[in-house]
Amino acid sequence: MERFSMFCYKFLGALIFAVLIPNSKITAQGNCLLFEANSGERKACELCYKASKFRQGSKASQLLFDEAIKVGSKFAYAYYQKSVPFFKRGMFAEGKMLIDKAISLEPQNYLFYRAYYYFYNRSYKLCRRDLEELYSNHGANYVTTPGGELEMRILLGISYGMEGKYNEGINWMLNLMEKYKALPHLKGFYDHYCLGRLYYENNQTDLAQAEFEKQLLINDQFADTFYYLGLIKEKQKEIEKATTYYQMALDKMNGKNGGFSSSIFADYNVTKDMVEMKITEVQ
User: Fold this and answer.
1) Would you call 23 exposed, middle or buried from its count of C-beta atoms within 10 A (0-12, 13-18, 19+)?
2) Side-chain half-sphere of 218: how many Cα atoms within 13 Å?
3) Would you report the helix, strand and coil content of the chain in percent, each value rounded to 5?
4) Angle at 147 between CA 152 and CA 54, to 5 degrees
5) With CB atoms counted within 10 Å of each terminal CB, which end of the chain scores lower, N or C?
6) What is the pLDDT of residue 154?
7) Which residues contact 144 (CB under 8 A, 6 or more apart)?
8) Region 189-283: CATH code
9) Which residue ranges make up each domain of the chain?
10) Cα–Cα distance, 115 to 247 (Å, whole number)
């Protein structure tokens, strides 16, 4: 009875999430009862449920995923789950071999994960290729990074930016902003900042400033926003305002009054050294 109740709770939670976020990508194992009894996929699914009871990456869980792949070679979720510990441990070649197989079976569900690791390994062109396929060919609507920090179109936009293709990156970010009109509750913590970055790199400083100011309305403790407002004011020869913004950025990087920075943007990260150098330059 307890097991049945837990299944009902999980099913209801997934159903509510699917209703609230239509066409969103949900990477979950799903209901094993959907597969034909005694089929390879059914057996693989049940083995994956057993594996989920062990610590991720443990020998016990990995052996169960091996068994799942052996009995149900078309069950993509097993390849995906087995790949995760390899990526987290920096064993990219081993993880990629497994995620490639999951993608060959269900590209709409697992392209995002390979793109995520391409991005953080600075393989921006490969990241862009996977995400373009995900959104353009498979009609993905709202897909986040595994930890939920960023919608994947942000990684796509930054990847274009790293190739110097700012207009394309901006267009993908505007595509994301358009989605928020119907789903405003999904707007992320850093969306306006990332769009502002691309505008800034594209020398559209007025539009960049507008996005950074919108970012402040969402969160005024993020140091990187103040750094870029400082850069804009410096370009506009307003050195006093630029200095103030740089100092605010440094204070927030030092955690003053709850301030913070982040390292989730790969080569688009702002470092304390960058801020301190600017403060020295404008003095």
Assistant:
1) exposed
2) 17
3) 70, 0, 25
4) 135
5) N
6) 97
7) 150, 151, 152
8) 1.25.40.10
9) 25-105, 118-187, 189-283
10) 36
Look-up: residue for tokens 């301190």? Answer: 276
Single-letter amino acid code for the residue at 83: S
- pLDDT tens-digit readout, 99-155: 999 999 999 999 999 999 999 999 999 999 999 999 999 999 999 999 999 999 999
Position 44, amino acid: A
How many CB atoms are closer than 10 A to CB 24?
A: 15
267/92 Cα distance (integer angstroms): 19
Residue 242 parent element (H or E): helix 239-253
Burial group, residue 16, by CB count within 10 angstroms (0-12, 13-18, 19+): exposed
Fill in the DSSP letter of residue 143: -
b/e map 29-53, b = 16+ CB within 10 Å: beebeebeeeebbbbbbbbbeebee
Q: pLDDT of 156-209, one tens digit each?
A: 999 999 999 999 999 999 999 999 999 899 999 999 999 999 999 999 999 999
- Name the pTM for this structure: 0.86
Residue with tokens 């267009």: 171
Q: Stretch 275-279: mean pLDDT, rounded? A: 97
Residue 268's CB is within 10 A of a number of other CB atoms, namely: 17
- Alpha-helical (H) ranges within 52-165 are 59-71, 76-88, 92-105, 107-120, 124-132, 152-162
- Cα distances (Å, whole numbers) of residue 28 to 2, 3, 32: 21, 18, 11
Identify the sign of the CA torsion 208, 210, 211, 216. positive
**Tens-digit pLDDT profile for residues 51-107:** 999 999 999 999 999 999 999 999 999 999 999 999 999 999 999 999 999 999 999
